[in-house]
C-alpha cells in the first residue's frame, strides 16, 4: 500500500531492493497493490476499503508507505487518511510496533546530537499500537454547546500483557535490558502497566528491568541513548519517543518499523509520514522503507542473511558518501530518491 | 514549600538570593514555610495539609522545591507526594505553567546537542497545568477482576481558551511566533484545541501561528530549537516536551518555571524533581530554583531590574566556570549546592 505523498516514491524502493534480493538469493517475491489513506478516499470515499483489507489478509506480509496530506485535512475526522492507518492496525491486530534506532557511524554529521552521544546507539522502541488514547471511547465533544471534550486512554490487562511479553522476548535476544516507560505518578493506566511489567519480570530473570517516567525518558533518550536496549511503552508515548529518537540517526528518513500480530504476521512501514512538502520531487529518503523490507525478511520470513544483505547495502552506500537531501552534509554526494534506490539495488546485487 | 529531597536544599538558594536582592535594591522579603508532598505525609498524613494551602493563599507568591521519593512510592495513589503537587496546582487554579528554555553560551559543553544547534536558543513552553489526563475522571480500574483501566483526557473550551490566550499574550511581548502542539490527527481534544487556537489567532494578527503534531515537535525541539519562540500545549505533552527541551541547556537543573492563575498569582518551582539519589549530598544544582525566584520578581512583583540582577548573576557565575556536578566539563570548577548559592549571592550583591 503505497498510500500518499512520498509513500508512493519510497515503496518503489522496497520492491526494487527485494527484487534484487530475490535474484541474488534465489527467491521470488510476488507484489500486489492496494490503496489506503488519501488515495483510497479519492478512489472510493473510504480511507481503508474492504478490498484493501481483504488483500492484506491474504498476503504473507504488508508494506505501507505513508498516508495523509493537506488535500484531505479539512475532511471530517472519520474520513481522514489517518483513519485508514489506524483502522488497518486495529483490523489486522498489529499490536506490537517495533522501531529499531541505530546510530550509523557515517551519519554522525547529520545528527543534532554530539557524535560521542549518537555513536553506537542501538536501541529498539516497542510501541503498543492498537490501544490507549488512539482507540479509547468516548472520544467526543460534550455539553449542549459542545463546551467540553474528552478522549479516553484505555487498556485491558491482556493488551498490556502481550506487548510487555513481546518486549521481554526481544530483550532476551538482544542485550537483556528492558526499560518500561510510563507516567505512573499520575495515570492509573500507567500504574497497571508497571504492575504487569513487574509480574512478567519474574518470568524473565535474565532481563534487567527498569521503570522510567515518560518525561525522564524524553531526556535520557537524547542525553544517554546508549543506556537503552529495549524500550516498551504505550501507544502515544511510543509515538512521541520514537520520533524524538529518530534524531539520533540524523533523520526520520532512516527509521524503519515492523508492526506484528500475535501470530507473527507483519506490516512494515517507515516511521516517517507522507511529507507532502517534498512529495513528487524525487527528494524523499527511501532508506526507512528499504530497511523496513529488511525487517520483513527477518520477522515475516526468517530470511536473516537476506535481511542483512539489505542492511549492509545501506551501510555501504552511506559509507560511500551518498545522501538524500534530508541528510546532506559537507563532502557528501546528494542524490534523489530514484538514484538512491538504484545505488542500494546495485550494492545488494 | 521546600518539599522533599533536593527541594529542601535548593529552596535555601532562592531565599538567600532574594535576601541579597532585597539588600541591594532596598526591599524586604518575608518568608513563611510549610510542608507538602512526602514531608507533609510524614507529618500529618496528608500530601497537601489545609494549613499549607491556607498559608499559600495568604501569601503574595509561593515557592515550591520538589516532591517525592522512594520512601513514599508504595503508598496508595491518593497518599503519594505527587498528589500534593497536583492538588496545589488545582486548588490554587495555577493553569498556566511557563517554562522558559535558554541556551546559555557557557553551558554548550554540557548539552548533548551540537553547539550550533543549542546556542542562542530562547523559547518558552506554555504548558496547561490543571486539565487533561492529569485530572480527568474516570481514572480507574474496571471489570470484575479489574481487567481493564481507563484515564480521561478532558478539557473544557474555557480551559483551552485561557491557556491559548496566555500564550498569545506572551508571544506578543516576545518574538511574535506561536507554535501550538497537539495530536489533532488522532485526538478529538486536539481538534478542539486547534480550532480554538485558530479562533484566537484572528485576535492577534501580529502573531505568526503554526500547528505541529506532538511527535513532530519532539523532533524539531532538538533538531531546530531556534525555530521556536512560544510553544503552547496541553498538560502531558507539555510535561514531556519541557523535560526534553531542558537538554538544550545541558541539564534539567537549569530550568525554572512559573505557574500562574487567572489573576496573575504565581507559584514558582524548578522543572526538576526531588532527585532522591543525590538528595542530602550537597550536590543539587540550585540554579533552576534561583532562576524561578527571578521569574517571581518579574511575574508576581513586576520587579524587572531585580529579576535581571539574578539572571545576570547566574550568567556571570557560569562564565566564571563554576558548575554543579550535573554540568561538569573539562576545565570547570565543580562546587556543591551551598557553595554555588554563596557564589551567586555574592554576584547579586
Ligand atoms: C499518522 C499518525 C496517526 C501516526 C501515529 O500517530 O501513530 C504516525 O505518527 C506514526 O507514528 O505512525
Ligand atoms: C511529579 C510530576 C507529577 C510532575 C508532572 O508531571 O507535572 C513533574 O513531572 C512536573 O513536570 O512538574
Automatic annotation (TrEMBL), chains A, B:
Reaction(s) this enzyme catalyzes, per UniProt: (2R,3S)-3-isopropylmalate + NAD(+) = 4-methyl-2-oxopentanoate + CO2 + NADH
Q: Could you give the cofactor binding note from the entry?
A: Binds 1 Mg(2+) or Mn(2+) ion per subunit.
Q: Which InterPro entries match?
A: IsoCit/isopropylmalate_DH_CS (IPR019818), IsoPropMal-DH-like_dom (IPR024084), Isopropylmalate_DH (IPR004429)
Specify whether Cytoplasm is a keyword of the entry: yes
Pfam families from the UniProt entry: Iso_dh (PF00180)
* Needed co-factor(s): Mn(2+); Mg(2+)
**What domain of life?**
Bacteria
Question: What residues bind NAD(+), as annotated?
Answer: 69-82, 273-285
Compartments reported by the entry = Cytoplasm
Matching entries from SUPFAM superfamilies are given as: Isocitrate/Isopropylmalate dehydrogenase-like
The entry's cellular-component GO terms read:
cytosol
Q: Which residues form the Isopropylmalate dehydrogenase-like domain?
A: 1-344
Binding residues for substrate: 89, 99, 127, 215
The catalytic activity of this protein is classed by the Enzyme Commission as 1.1.1.85
Q: Which GO terms describe its biological process?
A: L-leucine biosynthetic process
Chain sites annotated for binding Mg(2+): 215, 239, 243
Q: Which GO terms describe its molecular function?
A: 3-isopropylmalate dehydrogenase activity; magnesium ion binding; NAD binding
Xref: Gene3D superfamilies: Isopropylmalate Dehydrogenase
Q: Which UniProt keywords apply?
A: Amino-acid biosynthesis, Branched-chain amino acid biosynthesis, Cytoplasm, Leucine biosynthesis, Magnesium, Manganese, Metal-binding, NAD, Oxidoreductase
**What start-end ranges are recorded for coiled-coil regions in this protein?**
none
- Which SMART domains does this one have? Iso_dh
What PANTHER family is this protein classified in?
3-ISOPROPYLMALATE DEHYDROGENASE (PTHR42979:SF1)
Subunit architecture: Homodimer.
Described by its record, this protein's role is as follows: Catalyzes the oxidation of 3-carboxy-2-hydroxy-4-methylpentanoate (3-isopropylmalate) to 3-carboxy-4-methyl-2-oxopentanoate. The product decarboxylates to 4-methyl-2 oxopentanoate.
Query: What is this protein's name?
Result: 3-isopropylmalate dehydrogenase
The organism's lineage is: Bacteria, Bacillati, Bacillota, Bacilli, Bacillales
State the gene name recorded for this protein.
leuB
